[in-house]
C-alpha cells in the first residue's frame, strides 16, 4: 500500500485468497519510518527489555497479569506520534468493534537470525485481532491447526505439523490475523537462519524447499529481491527482525501515579 495517511483502507483487496481472516499489506511503512523505529527500539532502556529463552522483547503500553488484565503504562511517546501507525490501523477498521477502538498494547519482538517463535495462540486477553509489522528483515510466518485427535502426549492438543498457510512477511509490511486464524489456529516462525525457495512454474507456485509448502502471498510481494527469488528460486538470508504486534486488551487497570515505572 501507499504509506501516506488514508482515512480509510479497504482491507478486502489485501485478503489472502482462501483464508478468511488473513490480510497482507506490503509497504505499510516507508523506509524512513522503518529506520526511525529501529533507532527508537535500540534506544529503549536496556533494563526494560524482557529476555526470554530465545528472543528479547519490549512491552509497550504495559504488562498483562495472569488474569489477562493489562496493567497499563504510557506508550513510549513516539508510538502515538510518528509514524502514525495507530491511525493507519484504525483506518483498516480492524479495531472498530474492539473494546477501546484502537490498540492499547504492543509487543515488540526482536529476532536474530536463527531465532523464531514456537507455535502458539495469542489467547483470550485480546480482542481477537492482531496486526504485526515487520522491520529490518523478512521472515516466513506459518499458521497451524490442531489435529482432530483428542490429546497429544503431554495432555495438550496436538498440532498438525503441516502449516495451513505460510506467508512471507517483507520488511515494512503488516499482516493482520483475525477470525478463525486468530481464535482457533496457532502461528509460528521457524528458528532458521535462511529461507530457501524453489521457483514456481506454470503448474506449481513457489515453495519453501524443505517444507514443500507454497508461499501464499507470492503475488502480493513488492520487494525486487523477494519477487526475483520467488520466480527464479534462491535463498533469503534473515537479518535481525523486529516485529510490532498491535492488540487491544479488554481489561485494563491503571498503574497508580505514585508507583515507579
Ligand atoms: O514476530 C511475529 O511476527 C509474531 C510474534 C507473535 O506471534 C507474538 O508476539 O505473539
Ligand atoms: Fe503470537
From TrEMBL:
<protein>
    <recommendedName>
        <fullName>Fe2OG dioxygenase domain-containing protein</fullName>
    </recommendedName>
</protein>
<keyword id="KW-0479">Metal-binding</keyword>
<dbReference type="InterPro" id="IPR005123">
    <property type="entry name" value="Oxoglu/Fe-dep_dioxygenase_dom"/>
</dbReference>
<dbReference type="GO" id="GO:0051213">
    <property type="term" value="F:dioxygenase activity"/>
</dbReference>
<keyword id="KW-0223">Dioxygenase</keyword>
<dbReference type="GO" id="GO:0046872">
    <property type="term" value="F:metal ion binding"/>
</dbReference>
<comment type="similarity">
    <text>Belongs to the alkB family.</text>
</comment>
<keyword id="KW-0560">Oxidoreductase</keyword>
<dbReference type="InterPro" id="IPR032862">
    <property type="entry name" value="ALKBH6"/>
</dbReference>
<dbReference type="InterPro" id="IPR001005">
    <property type="entry name" value="SANT/Myb"/>
</dbReference>
<dbReference type="InterPro" id="IPR027450">
    <property type="entry name" value="AlkB-like"/>
</dbReference>
<dbReference type="GO" id="GO:0005634">
    <property type="term" value="C:nucleus"/>
</dbReference>
<keyword id="KW-0408">Iron</keyword>
<keyword id="KW-0539">Nucleus</keyword>
<feature type="domain" description="Fe2OG dioxygenase">
    <location>
        <begin position="102"/>
        <end position="250"/>
    </location>
</feature>
<dbReference type="Pfam" id="PF13532">
    <property type="entry name" value="2OG-FeII_Oxy_2"/>
</dbReference>
<dbReference type="InterPro" id="IPR037151">
    <property type="entry name" value="AlkB-like_sf"/>
</dbReference>
Amino acid at each position: 500500500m501507499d504509506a501516506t495517511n488514508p482515512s480509510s483502507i479497504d482491507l478486502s483487496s489485501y485478503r489472502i485468497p482462501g483464508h478468511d481472516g488473513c490480510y497482507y499489506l506490503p509497504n505499510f511503512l516507508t523506509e524512513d519510518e522503518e529506520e526511525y523505529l529501529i533507532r527508537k527500539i535500540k534506544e529503549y532502556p536496556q533494563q526494560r527489555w524482557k529476555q526470554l529463552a530465545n528472543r528479547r522483547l519490549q512491552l509497550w503500553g504495559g504488562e498483562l497479569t495472569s488474569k489477562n488484565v493489562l496493567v497499563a503504562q504510557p506508550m513510549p511517546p513516539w508510538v502515538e506520534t510518528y509514524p502514525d501507525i495507530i491511525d493507519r490501523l484504525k483506518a483498516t477498521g480492524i479495531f472498530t468493534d474492539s473494546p477501546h477502538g484502537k490498540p492499547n498494547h504492543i509487543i515488540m519482538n526482536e529476532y536474530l537470525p536463527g531465532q523464531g517463535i514456537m507455535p502458539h495462540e495469542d489467547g483470550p486477553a485480546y480482542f481477537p485481532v492482531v496486526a504485526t509489522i515487520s522491520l529490518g528483515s523478512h521472515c516466513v510466518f506459518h499458521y497451524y491447526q490442531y489435529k482432530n485427535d483428542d490429546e497429544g502426549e503431554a495432555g495438550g492438543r496436538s498440532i498438525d505439523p503441516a502449516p495451513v498457510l505460510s506467508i512471507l512477511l517483507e520488511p515494512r509490511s503488516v499482516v493482520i490475523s483475525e477470525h478463525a486464524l486468530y481464535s482457533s489456529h496457532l502461528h509460528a516462525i521457524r528458528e532458521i537462519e535462511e529461507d530457501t525457495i524453489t521457483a514456481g512454474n506454470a503448474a506449481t507456485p513457489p515453495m519453501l524447499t524443505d517444507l514443500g509448502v507454497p508461499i501464499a502471498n507470492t503475488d502480493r510481494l513488492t520487494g525486487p529481491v523477494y519477487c526475483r527469488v520467488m520466480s527464479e528460486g534462491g535463498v533469503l538470508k534473515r537479518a535481525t527482525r523486529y516485529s510490532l504486534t498491535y492488540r487491544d486488551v479488554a481489561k485494563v487497570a491503571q498503574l497508580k501515579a505514585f508507583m515507579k515505572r
